[in-house]
Amino acid sequence: MRPYVEANISHKSHTTIKYFLKMLSSVSETLIFIFLGVSTVAGPHDWDWTFVTVTVILCLVARVLGVVALTYIINKFRIVKLTTKDQFIIAYGGLRGAIAFSLGYLLNEEVFPKKKMFLTAIITVIFFTVFVQVSFV
C-alpha cells in the first residue's frame, strides 16, 4: 500500500505514521518476549530430551529445506536470482518463534495433554535460535 498511501498524505503525516508503526512494532516485540521470559521462569515444564533434541534438529532441517525449495521455485521467475549465500542467510536467520509460542500457549490442555512438553520444546527452539545460533555469527 506504500505507493498509494504516500502519494495521498502529507510528509508530516507520513513521518508520524512511520515512527508510530516502528514504536508499535518494538512495543509488541518487547511484550511478547517479556511474556516468553515469564513463562520460561514461572511456567511448569515437562522436559523430554529426545523430543526436544529431535524438535530442534527437525526445525533446522525443515527451515533449510523450505528455503532451498522455495528459492528454487522463485528463482525461476526472478531476474536477479537469490544466491546460495542469500539462501544460507535466510535459513540461518529464520524466525524466532513468537508465533509458535503463542499457538502452543493457546492449546487446550484437556484436548492436548502434552501441552507442557510442547511449550518446553518451543521455548528450547527459541532459545537455541536466539542464543546458540547467534553466538556463531
UniProtKB/TrEMBL annotation:
It is a multi-pass membrane protein. Keywords: Ion transport, Membrane, Sodium, Sodium transport, Transmembrane, Transmembrane helix, Transport. Residues 6-135 form the Cation/H+ exchanger transmembrane domain. The chain crosses the membrane at residues 20-43, 49-75, 87-106, 118-136. GO terms for molecular function: potassium:proton antiporter activity; sodium:proton antiporter activity. GO terms for biological process: regulation of intracellular pH; sodium ion import across plasma membrane. The keyword Chloroplast does not apply. Its main location: membrane. One of its GO terms (cellular component) is plasma membrane. It is found in: Membrane. This is Cation/H+ exchanger transmembrane domain-containing protein. It comes from Albula glossodonta (roundjaw bonefish).
